[in-house]
Structures are given as structure tokens and as C-alpha cells.
Amino acid sequence: MTINATKTLLLIIDVQNDFCPGGALAVTDGNAVVEPINTLSRAFAAKGGRIAATQDWHCTGHISFASSHNGKSAGDVIDTQLVKGQVLWPDHCVLGTKGAAFHDDLDVNPISMIIRKGFRQELDSYSAFYENDRKTATGLDGWMKSLGIETVIMGGIATDYCVFFSAMDSNNLGFKTIITSDAVRGVGYPQGSVEKAITDMKNAGIEFLSSKELMDRLN
After folding, report:
1. Is 105 known to be catalytic?
2. What percent of the chain has pLDDT over 90?
């Protein structure tokens, strides 16, 4: 399969300091996604492709923070007025902070669209397309369709949360969806969540290709 760069979006998910080693919600080897993403994004840009990136962008006291709920700890799961099964996390990606910024080594020059999600205090967001109420759209879908995008190639953090939900939504919205297998890393909470996410994505028809395989197919 040849990949037509002009009809493809490279979607970079949450490559932010707080999700990388040393961050408030660090994912093991999270920074390892940067090099393959940079290679792909530069190649896509050179061929006229589009590159977009998401950022978790939370206010202080966000509903997803364990610190916002008396007696709760990171990893607890609660129901909110808008979402059932909200996982609570350490404070992370607070808007305007160093933790919310893109990783220093991520090449942001090819990025033409940034989607900031989870900025509503009462509503978290994993997907690049919808907030966690599964109703509130980010606007990414409409922008992509206006550009004639047919395929989405995705990499970033974390495999079992924001990458998973973004990929499943992309697939359900009718875009051919490909995960860059060497450019994703997972949280692994609860145990087995990464393996389950990969299985579910593959069962949905989402393809997994390495950055090298993608580069070889890029046209």
C-alpha cells in the first residue's frame, strides 16, 4: 500500500513533558517516541502532508486530578456528572506550565494544527476528536474532511489511553487509521491495559506499521 502524503494526516498525540521521564505522569520510555515522530513529520511535510498535534491542557483543580477529590488517590475511578468511570490522575499538563509543553526535542516546525483538549474543568479528554462525554467534538474531524484527508497515521502517548481513544474515533469516523508501532508508549494501568488496547485496535481493523515501513510506503 502506497501512502499519499497529501491525503494523509500525521497525528501526534500528547508528546508533552509531563508524560515523559521526569514528568508528573511519566510513561516509561515516553521520550522514545520523539525520534520516529520527528523523522515522519519532516518527511510528510516535505511531501505536502499535514501534521497535527494534541496537548492535554488542564486547568488547576481539574476534575481528573485526584487532588481535586477529598480522600481519593491517583488510580481511583469515580463517576462524575458527565462521565462514568473517570480515572483519577496526578496533577499533570496544567495549562501554561513546563509540564504541559511539548517535549523539548519534538520538532514543532512541521505542525500546522494544535488541538488542546481537556481544558474544561468538569470534563476530561482522551481522544483528539471528542471529550470524554463522547459528545463534545474538538473540531479536528471537520478540519480534516475540509482538507480531503483519508488516512490518519498516529504516534504518541499513551497507547492505552489517548492514542487508543483517538485511533478508535478516527477509525469510526471513516478514516483509514495506522499506528506507528515504534512511536507509541503506554501507561499500563490497570495491568494489561496496553495489550488490551492493541488487541482491540487490531480487531477494529487499525493497522500497525513501523516508522521505517511507513517511510518506505510514503509517496
Report:
1. no
2. 99
Dump pLDDT digits (tens) for 174-210: 999 999 999 999 999 999 999 999 999 999 999 999 9
196 is catalytic: no
pLDDT in tens, 97-130: 999 999 999 999 999 999 999 999 999 999 999 9
Three-state SS across the chain? Answer: CCECHHHEEEEEECCEHHHCCCCCCCCCCHHHHHHHHHHHHHHHHHCCCEEEEEEECECCCCCCEHHHCCCCCCCCEECCCCCCCEECECCCCECCCHHHCECCCCCCCCCCEEEEECCCCCCCCCCCCECCCCCCECCHHHHHHHCCCCEEEEEEECCCCHHHHHHHHHHHCCCEEEEEEEEEECCCCCCCHHHHHHHHHHHCCCEEECHHHHHHHEC
Instruction: Give pTM, 2 decimals.
Output: 0.97
Domain architecture of the chain: domains with CATH? 5-58+92-217 (3.40.50.850)
Out of 18, 117, 141, 182, which one is annotated catalytic? 117
14 grid coordinates: 500528547
- Active-site option among 20, 141, 162, 182: 162
